[in-house]
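Incident log, support desk, overnight shift.

02:14 A customer reports that sequence design results differ from what the structure should imply. Their input is reproduced verbatim below. On-call engineer (initials T.W.) acknowledged and began investigating.
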C-alpha cells in the first residue's frame, strides 16, 4: 500500500526541529499557502486602528487508535450512556468546520498523545500486519492524521507500548513532528525526539505571528514500558524541561508559546517514588514556568473545557484545556493578539470543546481507510473456540465473577508451566487481574478473537514476582481502597460503591488462588480478613509467586511491594494474546474448571451480596 494518500503534505525533515526553529516543512508551507488572513479574523470590530490578529489552535488527545465511530469489541457502532461518538473521522468534520469559519491560515491542529494504542485497528498494524515489516503498510492513524492535516503531536506513554522500532516507523510515516522534549537519549542525554515545533501565521498587517508548540510526555514511561526503553531513553520531569525550553523559544522570537502535554492537571502520581517526577504535572507547568500562553492537556481522560492557572512569576493566566478521549471532543483555543512595541502580544486566550456527536463522519477519512477497517473487522470475528456458558463482567467490579477468574486461571497456568522444573516450581502461584471493561463478555457457544480481546483491552505483558504473605495482605488492603466506606445496615447501591477517590476500575486488583473478605464498613487499610490459602490462614513469612502484569510490576497504580519484588520470570507476549492462544489450544472455555468465589464484600462479617 502506498504511503502517498490524498491530502498528504510534503514530508518533514525532522532534523530541522531539533534545537532550532523549523525553516522548512509544514509550518512554512502552511503560512505560504494561505495568503492574507480574512479581515474578520484579523481585526475584530470596534478596535480602532490598532493592529490586531486572531487565530485558533485545535487540539485532540488520547485518540487511542480510534478512526471510525466503531467498537471492535462489540462489532457495532460505538455508543455509551452519554451517547458520545468517537474517532478521527468525526474530528475531521469538526476541524473542517472550524477551518471554514476561521480561515484555513488562521488555524493550527495539534495532539497531546496516546495515538497508536487502544483499538484492534491499531493493534492489527502493530502486531498482526506490523508497519515495521518489509514494505509494510502505513499505520491507519498516520494516514488519517496526515490527511486531516495535523501540524504537531506530543508523544503519550502508550506510544511506547509496542517498542521503539514501531514508534520510529510511525514517526517516519507522519507528515508532522512527534514532540517530546523530556524524552532523552540515554547515551547522550539529548532529546530523542523533536522538543518543539514552530511556525509563522501570516497576518494582513505584514507582520507574521510566530507560534511555538513544546511537546512534553509522561515520565512514567520509564517504569510502565521499562522493557522497551531501559538503557535507550530516559524521561525527565515536565516542569524541568519546560523551564529549559520555554525561555529559549521566547528568545528565538516566539510570540505565542503553547505546550502539548501528555500529563493531567491533578499534581498527583500513580507511581509513588518509583520516578522522581510528577505524573499529572500540567497545572504545575503552568504555575511554575513563565512564558506559556496555553496548554493542551492529555493522559488523564477527563474533560476540562477551560481552566486558568496563574503563573507565580508573571501573575498572568495560563489557559488549559483537555478534550475527552478517543476523539469524543475537540478543544479550541482562541487567541487575540495586538501589535505593541514592535511585536505581537497575546491579549486574551479562551478555550472550549466541541462535541463530535454533533457531526457526521468525514467520508474522506472513512473512505481512505475502508479496506483496513474491513480487514480488522474480519480478523476480530474469527472463531477460535467455544464456551459452555456465558460470562459477563457487568458485576465484576463488586463481586467475584468467573470472567475475571478466567484471566487469573490462564495467567497462573502460564506461569506454573514456565517455572516447572526450576528453582521456584514448588511455590504456590497466585494471579492478579482487574475488571478492565465492565462491558466485557464471553457468549455461550462460539467464541471469537474480539470476545477474548475484550477481556484484556491493554497491551500488558506477564511477569512473575516473589511476594510474602504479609506483602500480599498489604497489596490487598491497598486494592480495597477502591470501595466507598459503607456502614453496616441498609441497602447497598453498586453504582455508588466503587471508584472511591476516583480510583479507576483497572486499579482494583483481585488475586486468584487465595480467599479473603473485604469489610467495606471499615476504613481503608483495615478491611481484609480471612485471608487463606487452600483453607489455611496465611503466615506473614509464607512465600508465593504472583503472576502480575508489567504495568503493575513496574509500579503502575503505586501498589505496595510488587515493584521491588524479585522477578523470577517474564514474557514479551501480550496477556491478551496469551489468553487467545489458550482458547485456540484448549478449544473450550468451561467455567466449572476455574470459577470459584475467592473474595467477597462484607459488612461486619455479613456478606453484602
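02:41 Re-run completed on a clean worker. Output:
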Amino acid at each position: 500500500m502506498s504511503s502517498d494518500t490524498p491530502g498528504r503534505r510534503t514530508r518533514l525533515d525532522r532534523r530541522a526541529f531539533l534545537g532550532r526553529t523549523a525553516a522548512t516543512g509544514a509550518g512554512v508551507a502552511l503560512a505560504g499557502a494561505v495568503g492574507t488572513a480574512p479581515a474578520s479574523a484579523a481585526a475584530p470590530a470596534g478596535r480602532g486602528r490598532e493592529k490586531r490578529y486572531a487565530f485558533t489552535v485545535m487540539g485532540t488527545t488520547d485518540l487511542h487508535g480510534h478512526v471510525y465511530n466503531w467498537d471492535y469489541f462489540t462489532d457495532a457502532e460505538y455508543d455509551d450512556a452519554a451517547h458520545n461518538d468517537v474517532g478521527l473521522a468525526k474530528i475531521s468534520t469538526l476541524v473542517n468546520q472550524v477551518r471554514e469559519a476561521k480561515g484555513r491560515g488562521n488555524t493550527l491542529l495539534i495532539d497531546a498523545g496516546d495515538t497508536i494504542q487502544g483499538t484492534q485497528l491499531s493493534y492489527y498494524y502493530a502486531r498482526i500486519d506490523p508497519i515495521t515489516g518489509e514494505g509494510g503498510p502505513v499505520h491507519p492513524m498516520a494516514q488519517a492524521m496526515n490527511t486531516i492535516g495535523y501540524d504537531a503531536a506530543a508523544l503519550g506513554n502508550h506510544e511506547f507500548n509496542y517498542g521503539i522500532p514501531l514508534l520510529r516507523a510511525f514517526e517516519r510515516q507522519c507528515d508532522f513532528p512527534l514532540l517530546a522534549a523530556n524524552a532523552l537519549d540515554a547515551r547522550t542525554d539529548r532529546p530523542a525526539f523533536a522538543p518543539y515545533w514552530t511556525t509563522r501565521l501570516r497576518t494582513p498587517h505584514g507582520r507574521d505571528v510566530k507560534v511555538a508548540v513544546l511537546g512534553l510526555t509522561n515520565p512514567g514511561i520509564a517504569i510502565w514500558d521499562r522493557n522497551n526503553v531501559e538503557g535507550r531513553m530516559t524521561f525527565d520531569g515536565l516542569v524541568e524541561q519546560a523551564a529549559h525550553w520555554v525561555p529559549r523559544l521566547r528568545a528565538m522570537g516566539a510570540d505565542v508559546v503553547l505546550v502539548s502535554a501528555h500529563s493531567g492537571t491533578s499534581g498527583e502520581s500513580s507511581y509513588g517514588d518509583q520516578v522522581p517526577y510528577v505524573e499529572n504535572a500540567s497545572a504545575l507547568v503552568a504555575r511554575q514556568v513563565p512564558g506559556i500562553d496555553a496548554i493542551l492537556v492529555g493522559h488523564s481522560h477527563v474533560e476540562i473545557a477551560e481552566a486558568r492557572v496563574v503563573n507565580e512569576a508573571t501573575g498572568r493566566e495560563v489557559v488549559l484545556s483537555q478534550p475527552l478521549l478517543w476523539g469524543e471532543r475537540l478543544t479550541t483555543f482562541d487567541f487575540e493578539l495586538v501589535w505593541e512595541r514592535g511585536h505581537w502580544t497575546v491579549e486574551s486566550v479562551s478555550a472550549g470543546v466541541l462535541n463530535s456527536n454533533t457531526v457526521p463522519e468525514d467520508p474522506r477519512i472513512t473512505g481512505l481507510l475502508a479496506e483496513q477497517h474491513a480487514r480488522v473487522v474480519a480478523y476480530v470475528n474469527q472463531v477460535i473456540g467455544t464456551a459452555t456458558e456465558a460470562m459477563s463482567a457487568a458485576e465484576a467490579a463488586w463481586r467475584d465473577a468467573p470472567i475475571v477468574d478466567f484471566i487469573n486461571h490462564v495467567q497462573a497456568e502460564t506461569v506454573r508451566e514456565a517455572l516447572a522444573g526450576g528453582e521456584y516450581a514448588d511455590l504456590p502461584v497466585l494471579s492478579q487481574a482487574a475488571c478492565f471493561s465492565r462491558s466485557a463478555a464471553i457468549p455461550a457457544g462460539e467464541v471469537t478473537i474480539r470476545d477474548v480481546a475484550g477481556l484484556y483491552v491493554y497491551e500488558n505483558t506477564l511477569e512473575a514476582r516473589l511476594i510474602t504473605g504479609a506483602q500480599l495482605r498489604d497489596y490487598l488492603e491497598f486494592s480495597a481502597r477502591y470501595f466507598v466506606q459503607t456502614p453496616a445496615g441498609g441497602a447497598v447501591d453498586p453504582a455508588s460503591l466503587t471508584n472511591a477517590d476516583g480510583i479507576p476500575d483497572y486499579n482494583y486488583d483481585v488475586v486468584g488462588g487465595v480467599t479473603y473478605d473485604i469489610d467495606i464498613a471499615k476504613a481503608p487499610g483495615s478491611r481484609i480478613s480471612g485471608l487463606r490459602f487452600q483453607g489455611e490462614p496465611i503466615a506473614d513469612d509464607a512465600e508465593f509467586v504472583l503472576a502480575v502484569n508489567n504495568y503493575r510490576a513496574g509500579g503502575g497504580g503505586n501498589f505496595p511491594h510488587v515493584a521491588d519484588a524479585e522477578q523470577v520470570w517474564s514474557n514479551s507476549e501480550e496477556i491478551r494474546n496469551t489468553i487467545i492462544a489458550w482458547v485456540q489450544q484448549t478449544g473450550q472455555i468451561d467455567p466449572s474448571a476455574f470459577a470459584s468465589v475467592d473474595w467477597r464484600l462484607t459488612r461486619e462479617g455479613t456478606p453484602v451480596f
